[in-house]
Amino acid sequence: MNFWQRATNAVRSIGQRLSDPRRLLGRGGGWWGMRSAGEWVTENTAYNLSTVYACVRLISSLTAQLPWQAYYTDPVSGNRVRLLQSPVDRLLHKRPHPEVGSFTFRELMLSRALLHGNAYAEIVRNYQGDATQLCFIEPGRVSPQRDESGELGWRVSNDAGGDVWIPDADMFHLRGLGNEVEGWSVLEMARRSLGISLASEGMAESAMRNNPRLNLVFKHPKSLSDDAYRRLKDDLDERTQPSAAHKPLLLEDGVDFEALRLNPNDLQLLESRKFQAEEICRWFGLPPHKVALLDRATFSNIESQAREALTDCIMPWVLRLEQEADEKLFRRSHKAMGAYSKMNTNALLRSDAAGRAQLYKALHAVGAISPDEIAELEDLPKIGAERGGNLRVIPMNMQTLEAAMAAAKSTAKRK
User: Fold this and answer.
1) What does the pLDDT read at residue 260?
2) What whole-number distance in Å separates Cα of residue 347 and Cα of residue 359?
3) Among candidates 334, 281, 414, 369, which has minimal Cα distance to 92?
């Protein structure tokens, strides 16, 4: 069974069991669903909220687009060198599975970790101990279990029957905030906020469907005849349809009306929905302006808010992925030579040409980067070593602190 068949079968089986929403998973109820504010909170219903969908999509896609490669530190020069001879580099940068690219795999893992607190993938190794494949497993099938010696492992349930125990060293585990073993499910922790948001969506839908403009009481000095009552009722039923909302209503035989409803501003329905959108952003740690809530965003602070999205929201997930890969994907010989993985967060500046130019100019001015290295980062033709493209230069009027101190001491002695 290939990668997508396993993932599809898992989702299909979940959808079948969700036909009875009263069935809970048992491990906190985070996978099947919980009831809050009169609404069932599940992964499917949560994705119906545009803010949840936007938060998960943005965080997972922004993190997945970062180049992820394997490196080691050269013991002679001290420079960072690409570890191209390791299959881990291809696994991280290209294809962690024969049927799934690196972007899709990371996006899939992050989408599960963001909602359920955990995402899992079994590590397949070659005879040398290098990781060659990562096979995604739905988090609802995985639970922690220690063996007789106390070693942590993961019990994976199979649709065909029977469980499989995978040692922790062979399970790529991406987790969010939680305890020492597992991450906490955001669906479970935020069930009240999500339930209120779903209830607000239902209220708005009901208001539009039932046309609140006809929330009226009709008065008559006596009693209506059967024919007049029937005509009034049929006319009112017709006006409850949105397509007939603006047609005039004909009152006959001395019938009067009085409006009882409050308008949407008094009910604060829109304000409540906006507050719930901000509340959901807080659960995911994403600045509201990233999901088009621009009430507090201005031209003067939008750049700093974009930096906050990277440092406060994206970077924690980057570090979790890097540390899990460093610990579990490299074989011992590569670990001994200092192998590690690195995501290049500068890739988020690809759309900011002015920002990249300013960064390269500053790095080149202090000799931290050469023209050929800049060209490589920008996918441009290199100048070449024979024409000085690999040279790092600094301004002639600059000197080291040691040289400045020596000159000052020499001047003091002459005095």
Assistant:
1) 56
2) 13
3) 334
Task: With cut-offs at 50, 70 and 90, classify the pLDDT of residue 24.
Answer: very low
pLDDT for res 215: 61
3-state secondary structure of 133: strand
Alpha-carbon gap, residue 332 to 67, rounded angstroms: 24
**What pLDDT shows up at residue 25?**
35
CA atoms within 13 A on the CB side of 291: 24
What does the pLDDT look like over 161-197, one tens digit per residue? 778 899 999 999 999 998 889 999 888 888 888 888 7
Identity at 49, one-letter amino acid code: L
Tokens for 231, please give them. Answer: 């005509």
**Percent of the chain at pLDDT exceeding 90:** 22
Q: In the prediction, which pLDDT does 30 show?
A: 40
CA gap 43, 47 in Å, rounded: 6
Residue 7: which of 101, 121, 94, 124 has the closest Cα? Answer: 121
Per-residue CA distances from 324 to 49, 72, 88, 119 (Å): 31, 16, 13, 12
Beta carbons of 242 and 201 less than 8 angstroms apart: no
For the chain, report the end-to-end CA distance as a whole number of angstroms.
86
Query: How many angstroms separate the CA atoms of 321 and 174, rounded?
Result: 7
Tokens 């100048």 -> residue:
383
Q: Look up the pTM and report it.
A: 0.70
Per-residue tokens: 336: 């001994």
Q: Which pLDDT score is estimated for 27?
A: 38
Closest CA to 63 of 286, 376, 281, 288: 286
Task: Find the farthest-apart pair of alpha carbons in the chain and give their distance in angstroms, rounded.
Answer: 120
Q: Output 27-32 pairs: Cβ under 8 A, ≥24 positions apart.
A: 27/143, 28/185, 28/188, 29/188, 30/116, 30/117, 30/185, 30/187, 30/188, 31/116, 31/139, 31/140, 31/185
Q: Quick one: pLDDT at residue 124?
A: 93
Distances from the Cα of 305 to the Cαs of 109, 288, 298, in angstroms?
Answer: 26, 9, 10
Positive or negative: CA dihedral 166, 168, 174, 177: positive
Per-chain mean pLDDT for the chain = 78
- The confidence band for 26, taking pLDDT boundaries of 50, 70 and 90, is very low
- CA nearest neighbour of 298 among 289, 307, 287, 290: 289
Question: Using N-to-C axis directions, what is the helix angle for 269-284 and 50-64, rounded to 10°?
Answer: 30
